[in-house]
Amino acid sequence: MDAQIKKGVLEMCLLYKLSQKDYYGYNLMKEMKLLFPEVNDSTFYAILRRLKKEGSAGIYYGEESCGPKRKYYKITPDGIKMLENHIYDWNKLKEIIAQLGM
Questions:
Q1: Residue 86 CB: number of other CB atoms within 10 A?
Q2: Do residues 27 and 18 lie in contact, with contact meaning Cβ atoms separated by under 8 Å?
Q3: Which of 3, 23, 48, 81 could form a disulfide with 28 if both were Cys (CB 3.0 to 4.6 A apart)?
Q4: Across residues 43-49, what is the average pLDDT?
Q5: What is the pTM of this model?
Q6: Which residues contact 49 (CB under 8 A, 6 or more apart)?
Q7: What average pLDDT does this structure show over 23-46?
Q8: Neighbours of 102 (CB within 10 A)
Q9: What is the pLDDT of residues 66-77, one digit of tens each?
Q10: Distances (CA, A) of 51 to 18, 33, 56, 76, 89
Q11: Residue 12: which pLDDT band, with cuts at 50, 70 and 90?
Q12: Contact at 8 Å (CB) between 75 and 18?
């Protein structure tokens, strides 16, 4: 899959997962790896960091679990808007491709 297409799809998928519940980064990455096994772990974390930097995701620290505090990711109101835009764009793209007969 083309890297640019994959980047957008991964971002949309990560935002969607975060819209369902808050995630510990490692658990989110494990779930996404099942769907995108060819994607490096660092790619998921890079997207999460960018989403946080852009304000689409936030973080908080959970309870300690025999080690350092766990960093949890959650979607923000801006992230919800971004996800809605991604889904709209995705559906429009699917319509266009269907019209082409692909």
A1: 17
A2: no
A3: 23
A4: 93
A5: 0.87
A6: none
A7: 92
A8: 6
A9: 777 889 999 999
A10: 11, 18, 5, 10, 18
A11: very high
A12: yes
CA distance 7 to 69: 29
Q: How do 57-64 and 69-75 pair as beta strands? A: antiparallel
Q: Whole-angstrom Cα distance, residue 83 to residue 97?
A: 21
pLDDT of the residue at 4: 72
Angle at 72 between CA 69 and CA 74, to 5 degrees: 160
Contacts of 35 (CB under 8 A, 6+ apart): 13
Query: Rounded to an integer, what distance in angstroms lies between the CA atom of residue 41 and that of residue 21?
Result: 20
Helix (H) or strand (E) holding 71: strand 69-75
pLDDT at res. 87: 96
How many beta carbons lie within 10 A of that of residue 70, not counting itself?
Answer: 15
- Helices 3-20, 25-35: crossing angle, 10 deg rounding: 130
The partner residues of 74 in beta bridges, in order of sequence, read: 58
What is the reported pLDDT for 64?
A: 65
